[in-house]
User: Fold this.
Amino acid sequence: MKTCHRFATIKAGFERDASILSAHAERHQGSAPAKTSAKNAVTVKRNMARALNTHLDRCRECG
Ligand SMILES: [Zn+2]
Assistant:
């Protein structure tokens, strides 16, 4: 499947957020903020899937 530049930009942004949150969760493992970060990382990944799917539905370049 071919994807456009915009797709890559959306993906990169979400992945950066998710990796920051995951790294934070790992560094503070077991603590309350770590649990929040881990949960937020899951949410970010879910939002990424949704955003990319929405993009694919609407984009003429991707497909
Ligand atoms: Zn696209």
User: Anything to note?
Assistant: The first helix runs from residue 5 to 27. The pocket of zinc ion is lined by residues 3-4, 6-7, 55, 59, 61-62 (CB under 6 Å). The chain has one domain: 5-58. The chain has a mean pLDDT of 97.
